[in-house]
Design brief:
Strand content: under 5%
Number of domains: 1
Oligomer: single chain
Helix content: over 70%
Length: 91
C-alpha cells in the first residue's frame, strides 16, 4: 500500500512542486487559512519525496520555511492592521 501511494506521489511531482509547497505553507500560515489547507501534510509529503530523490531536501526546507515565515508575517500584518476593528465589529 505504501509503495502504491509513494508511486502516485512521485509520479505527480513536477517542476511546479516546489512552488506548490511554498504556496501551501504560505496560505496555511496567513489569514487563518490553516484550517482549510493542510500545510504540515504537504511538508511531510515533500520530505518523503526528497528522501526518494524526487526533490532536493535543502530546497524543500528553505522553501517551506520561507513560505511559513512570510505567511506568518502577512497574517501578523493583517491582524495588527484590521484585527481590532474586526473584534469590535463581530464581538
Amino acid at each position: 500500500m505504501e509503495e502504491k501511494v509513494m508511486g502516485l506521489l512521485l509520479s505527480v511531482m513536477s517542476d511546479w512542486s516546489i512552488y506548490a509547497l511554498f504556496l501551501m505553507t504560505f496560505f496555511e500560515a496567513a489569514l487563518l487559512l490553516g484550517v482549510f489547507i493542510p500545510g504540515e501534510t504537504i511538508v511531510i509529503a515533500a520530505g518523503i519525496a526528497a528522501s526518494r530523490g524526487a526533490l532536493d531536501l535543502t530546497e524543500v526546507m528553505v522553501v517551506a520555511s520561507a513560505g511559513a515565515i512570510l505567511g506568518d508575517t502577512v497574517g501578523y500584518f493583517f491582524g495588527s492592521r484590521y484585527g481590532e476593528g474586526m473584534i469590535e465589529r463581530y464581538a
